[in-house]
Amino acid sequence: MSGGSELTNAAFEKFSVFIKTPFWFELKKKKIHVFKLTAEEVPVHGLYSTPREANDKSKLELNKESFDDEVRAGPFEYVQPGVLLNYNTIEEYKAMEHKVLLRTKATELWNSIHSGAWLNDPATLLKFYIYSFSDLKAFIFRGRSMLPTLSPKTPIQCGTLMGIFTALSIAQVASLKTACDAKRGIGSDGTDPTFVNKPFFVVKLLPEDKLELATLSELTPANADKLAKGEIMVCMADPCTASHMGWPARNLLFALAYHFGFTTITLLSYRDQMGSIEGSKVQKYTVTLPKKEETAGGAIPDWVTPVGWEDGRSPVNLSKLMDSKLLASESANLNLSLMKWRMLPNLDLEKIAAQKCLLVGSGTLGCGVARNLMKWGIHNFTMIDRGQVSYSNTVRQSLFVHEDAVAGKNKALAAADACRRIHPLCKVDHVDMSVPMPGHIVSESEEEAVKATCEKFEKLIEEHDAVFLLTDSRESRWLPSMLGTKHKKIVINAALGFESYLAMRHGCPGGESKRLGCYFCNDITSPVDSLSDRTLDQQCTVTRPGVSDIASALAVELLTAVLSHPEGIYAQPPGNEGHSTGVLGCVPHQIRGGLYSFDQNLIRGDHFPNCVACSSRVVDMYTEQGFPFLLKVLNDSSYLPEISGITEMLKKSEDLDLESCSEDEIDEA
């Protein structure tokens, strides 16, 4: 492998230390409860990653977790050890001696390289320092960062920067990616602790386009010739996307040349960009340093210049963000941001968060759906219920507490209040309302009140993007099913049995693909009054305790799957023609499961043209007649089958049966 005959002075892209807001907030808590007046250095750590996008800048990130003893990093993140020193007064901070601090820390680095201690943990070559002052009254934080680097008086030189496919064969590149992923635990049973999250390693090229990975401690001075020829490469997880190497290469090259006596080093810049390493580079470096035997430890020799202070940063005023409500809002979506950052870069969190949802029912399912909506960053929803919190509700319905039952509080109001306590910036409305239901007769004296309720309910349907049906009876789901069809809303249905559950989405008219059915499409009977004359076990939703949590979680996941699919509400489920997956995978029609056998099945069903809820006959008649139509439906359980065509269909079926019987009698005669 040739690295080019012309040598030029090497350039390296400098790290930018990016201190995130939660880091400062955690420092505030540590200062008050742990550090107090101590002025000792505190170990912290930062993370950098290989570039995720073509124009990413080299960035070392510090977050709240930077203070944790246990480092939590993803497979493509690399750990940098660091130190924080927080001064007690602004005067001490302003009086710190930058040159003295830099030389002191650079001397520690020099002695680690001279003694060979760096080989025990090569990441110490990247050790950083944060010096700060925290004004806890004004919530103003000041900080300076330093990454000590040893710069030799004789400049490091380099040859031509080559693409990875110039230096390696296609098979070798594939082998390198596979080997690195395996050691990180991607596609394998476990990780290699000597490799995962470590920024440096060695690549040894073998015959027949094979290679193997090794640690830096396995290098010896005898490897000098192969390292110069490129038969052995030192590999660096590179945060840089530019036409040169990133900052971590500087101390690495210095340490390799000084410790092993290497003068020509082939360095592989490993750039894993969202699963592809095609952007990786290879470059040969010439490093001319005095021999180790001729230099003593202790003070930094004259032929080395320490550098590393980052440009001064402006004070960070977190007075607005440090308000608990605003900080809660920022922190609440952390998990979602991490999902988008690593696993689902195309996930449109803004679209999901912008949804306004209507929850029809605020009991067991309603509470579960509300909590799951908040987990997904959906904080704008309305809860409907007429019932009051009872003593039996508080252990089963996750948003209620004992005091709600003592006060006999309306369920929708209690649930909305609880959501605001969980996340103060949630915009949760409540409506004390009973949904009008077929078979529940309306007297003349009640007609005006029921009409107003129906108009208000339809307005709520219109104002929301998605509707969840979470009530405890079949007939209470009819009106929102019909109105959801009329206004082409996303309708999600969740229902419970004793040990079974259902989460489903309703089909919507107007799509080019096959229309899916609604909750009522499998029935040929009209919804009737199922709430009267019930015994105690029939009055309560008797289910195994875990069923409601499963159903409510699946209902919200179904909504986000619909929103994340390019066809949205018209996405076809698995098994249907035109089925495709979205960002979150498939979008089922119905998810049915049970705890008796712990099974779960994806079911699909077509739209029934004579459906009592979503057929064009029913929807069109309501559109034409309005409340008079609804009044007939509420008062006469036979009306829906008649106008939907089910009555006529059943009569034809009976006539066919009679004709069949007559023919059989003739044959027997």
Number of helices: 21
Distance between the termini: 98 Å
Q: β content, as a range?
A: 15-25%
How large is the radius of gyration?
Answer: 34 Å
- The mean pLDDT is 87
Largest sheet: 8 strands, mixed
Overall description:
The protein has 669 residues and is of the alpha/beta class. It has 21 helices and 26 strands. The strands form 5 sheets. Strands 1, 9, 10, 11, 12, 13, 15 and 16 form an 8-stranded mixed sheet that branches. It has an 8-stranded mixed sheet with strand order 21-20-19-22-23-24-25-26, sandwiched between helices. Strands 4, 6, 7, 8, 17 and 18 form a 6-stranded mixed sheet that branches. Helix 11 (364-375) crosses helix 17 and helix 15 (478-486) crosses helix 18. Residues 534-539 and 665-669 have low confidence and may be disordered.
